[in-house]
Structures are given as C-alpha cells and as structure tokens.
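Handout, section 4.2: multi-component inputs.
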Amino acid sequence: MRSASARLVLIAAAIAAAGPLRAGGNMDFGGDSGSMNDGPSYFGFVRDASGSVVGDAKVTASVKSGGAVVTRTNSMGVYKIPGFAKDIDPNTVTISCAKDGYKQTDALRRPPSDPKDPIETECTLQKD
Amino acid sequence: MTRTLGAVLSVALAFAGIAAQAARAQTLTGSVTSAEEGAMEGVLVSAQRDGSPITVTVVSDAQGRFRFPDGRLPGGQYSLRIRAVGYDLAGPRTATLGAAGADVALRLVKAADLAAQLTNTEWFISMPGAAEDKRPLIECMSCHTLERIVRSTYSADAFVPVLTRMAQYANNTIMARVQRRVAPGRVDEDAVRKLAASLAAVNLSHGPAWTYELQTLPRPRGRATRAVITEYDLPRQTIAPHDVRTDRDGRVWYSNFVENVLGELDPETGANRDYPVPLAKPGFPTGALDLETDTDGNLWLAMMFQSGLVRFDTASKSFQRYPVDAALDDDAMQQSLVMPRASNVDGKVWTNDVARQSIMRLDLSTGHYERIDPFRFLPKGRPHAPYGMAADAQNNLYFMDFGDQNIGRVDAKTGASTIFPTPTEKSRPRRCMLDAQGRLWFAEFAANKLGLFDTRTESFKEWDAPTPYTYPYDVFADRNGELWSAGMASDRVLRLDPRTGAAVEYLLPRPTNVRRVFVDNSTDPVTFWAGNNHGAEIIKLEPLD
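Output:
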C-alpha cells in the first residue's frame, strides 16, 4: 500500500518534470519570464489623491518606438509588468494609469540603484 | 354554402389529423434499463438507417425513456448504438421503423472494456498528479487520443525515438494520415527524455493493468439530456473537418485539415461535395485550418504548409490563390489562421506566420504580404504563437497568443501592437470571436476557462469550465448571449450563460475531437455545429430549450 502511494508520487513528479518537446515550438513553456537577456521589469502602486490604493486600474507601459503592454492593478492597487526586450531603453518606457471616473495627475519613477533592478513607479489618479 | 364549407373543413381536419398521427407514429421511442440501475437517465441512443450517412442521437430522460423527434427518422431498417460510460448495449442492436413507429426496450450490461470508453478528460482525471503536472500531455490530443498512450507498453527509453519521430510530423496529422514536415523540427533531447519518462509512468510498461483507478464522469442529467444530435459521416477517413460554418442558405462548409479540399455538406441529405484547392507546394503537407468569411460572403482558407491564403468565390465556385511572396516563403512557412472579415475597409487580410511567431498581412491590391512582429519589444525566448484572430470595424486585429498568455491588438493604420496579458497565467488562449458589442470571447485552452476581453474597456473576465481537463479550444457567443464551447478532450459541448454562470454540458455520441465551434443563430433554438477532426464527421447539436 505504501509502495503504491510512493509510486503515485513518483509518477506525478515524472509528469511534472516533462517540458516542451520541440525547441522553439509552441508545445509548452516552462519557467517564469525574466532572464539575463531581458530589460528590467516594472511594478508599483496606483493611488488616488488621498493616497489610498486603486484596484482594477488600467496600467499601460508604452514603448517609444511603438507598442505597449496593458495590465491592471490587483485589489491592493499593485501592478507588475515583466519587462521588455533588452534593446528597449527603460528611459523610453512610459507608465500611465487610467480608470473610469478618474484622471491621471502624476506618474513618479524611483530610479533603481542597479540597472537590472525592477523599476518602481507610482501613478496617481484623481476623481473627475 | 355553410354546410359545404363545414364538410370541406372537417375533411381537411381529418386529413390533418391523419397526417399528424402518421408523423407522430412514425418515430422511434423506447426505454433503457440495466440490471444495476433499472431505468437509466442520460444514456445516448443513436440510430442510423442502413446505407445513410446520417446518425441521429437522443438522450434518455429521468424515467429512462427516449423519443426521437417526430418525423425526423424516415422509415427503414436502423442500427442502434448507445453511449453510457461503464455500460455496453446488450440489445437490441437494430430496429425496423415502419408507418406504425417502433418502441424498443434497450438492455445495458456492464462494459467489457471500460478503458475503451474513457474520454481524454477522464484519462486526465484518472492520472495521478496536479493539472500543472499533466500539462505536457495536452499537445498529444492534436493527433490522437490519450488512450493510445496509456495502452502502449513502451518504456521511457523506447518512447524517446517515438517522440523524436512524432516531432517531425506536421500539426495537420491524424491517425488516418500522417504528414511529415519538410523543414525539420528541432528537438530538445532533454525535454523528450522527460516527456518519455512521464508517459512511461502512466502506460502499461510496468504490467498488464494501470496503477491508478480509472475514473469516469457522470452521465448527463436533466437539461443535459434535452438535445438532439446529428452526425454526418463523411465519405473518407482522411477528411478531417477543422472549422465548420453554415451560410445564409443553410449550406454547411468546412475546412479539411488533411486533404487539400474545401468541403460542403448538404444537411438535409448528408451528401458531401469536394472542392479541390489547387496544390501550391507539391511534397508539402496538405490541408487547411481556418475557414472564415468576408463581407461578400466568400470563404477564406489558411493553407497551413501549402502556405498562403485562398479565397473561394461562393457564386462562381472558383478559388483565388494568394501565395506568400517568394522572398518571404521557405520550407517552414505555415499559415494557420486568416481574418478577412473587415478587408472591405482597407483591402487587407490578416494571417499568421507560425514558424516565426509573427503576424502577416496581405494587401489585396498588390498580392504582397508584409510581416509584423507584434512581440518585437518583449523579452526574447518566450514561446509566442499568434493564433485565433478577429478584426474590428476598422480592421484592427485582435489575436490570441496561443503559445503564451496574451491577447494582442495590432493597429491597422500604424502596425503598432498592444499586448494584454490574461488574468490567468499560462492560459494559452486559442480561438476567439468578436461580437457586435466589441466583446472578444475566447477559449483559454490550458487554463480550462472561457474568457472575455472587452475591447472598449480593455478589461478581462474569466469563467471556469465546469469539468476539469476539458481544455476548451474555441467559444461562440450566440444571439442570446450564451456561450458555446468544445475541445479535443471531453466529448462534450459546453453551454454557459456568462450572466449567471449556469452551465450545461451535452455529451456527444462518439469520441470527438472538436476544433472551431459555430452557432447558427437563424434557428429557434440556436443550432450548434462542429467537426470531428479525428472522426471524419460533422456534428449538429440542437438543444430543445
């Protein structure tokens, strides 16, 4: 009985260990994003004028050369965006926030101490 | 005068009465029982008239009774089959339907081979481990059932050459016809060894029986028993219907994933008609994936490894080929999707370049394609794959990033792309439809969810599929706002009301590998259509409510 359950664990582990079959194909993908070849990721809060966090706010990270990634804050008012290709200069990435009934009044960026560190922003919304 | 009219009326009424009686009488009814359960609800009963390509299926109710719709079955000799997991039909296996109709008492006995009855979903449920652990196996269903894996006796070592060989097969491969890629697929040997070990852990390489218990899903109950399903057998096993749709005249069109043929089905007679697509690249895998319409009602096919797009003029029944520019084409070129819906706006048709994880756009005035990399500003090395496509009224493109976890938008004027990660990670969104309210409905294949991306607010909503491991391939929002979905795993059609979350799952009569789903909104209630990609049949499901 014990060996049977141990075997089930082994089977599960074996299945879990299997990764993508064809390199470069869309068979599957593993691991989290973010490698040495990527630019820094972005994260931060969206707050209202009183400093309270704003959940479900739209956050857009726009690239100067064209293109954007759009996400939303969670209930804690936090967003994160995994980052862009290494050849995208973080200084050309603009973070903005929006929500129905609000307008953006500010978007601050804390300069990271290391260029590889995630870039923290704080975006402020004011009720219309 | 009054008397004459009265006489005529009574004669007419008498005739109507006889006609109604005949129509009512000439149907097949019956009961389903077993020694184990007595009267059985949720047993699918299928009847196929000798020599006909059409099989009609109804489902037994809570009293174990079934009734085919009045007048649906012409008189004749029928073969009968059932689907009820855990049971076989002891008899009778035939019925004669005459003017008086027929009533049969079906007797079910315990299944001789339960494993032969499991859906892919039931195999996934039965296998040990969490959903995340079983993720690598979901690709297997593209070409064959999981039963094929679990019944094999390969050791991990013996699996390695098998998997290496299969990695060289084209996506449009079915058991009835294996197609080999011309451009060799690069194989990650380490990944192959790991997958081989995982498959050898769940098959019969260790002994004559599985080391885990076979688990089955419950039979349909209540509302899920109230549907009529029609299967249309196609004349060759190598016909692999991928996308199915009906046109304004009620004709049924389908793309053939394996043969270089556009198919048309007459839903009244079940007659099949082939329209051979001119071969563009001899020696390359044949067949098309996506089938879409433009505003003129013409049909477009994405020609997979034959590369490029094809337009079928439904009036002249002729094809216009749009080959990929020679400078862009190569042995790996593969167009799986096409989106011509708003090509009348700017003369452009969207498609994809699978090998380069890119979008392509055809300019109808020049016949040239341009390549647009919608991920060019994102980190390299992610397995992006532009897949399901929709176009808005300005011909801006919305696409599913099937390899990863994003919805993408490409601006028709600037070519700039915006990437919207889905709330659920590793969701692998697959096919989609954009409704008139700007709502993009999509199937999250790997997340087992249906999704909504509101293009106006750029916000998401998600609904869990009620049964785990069903891996929805596509979704269609009908005129009532209800969602219809299906896939390669569960042999079930999901109907979900996104306003209430209420869901019903209709079991299909046979092992069914569904890709694109389509709803004909012109009937009341609506009619669901799909192809059985591995079973050479078209399926129609008519809900009774």
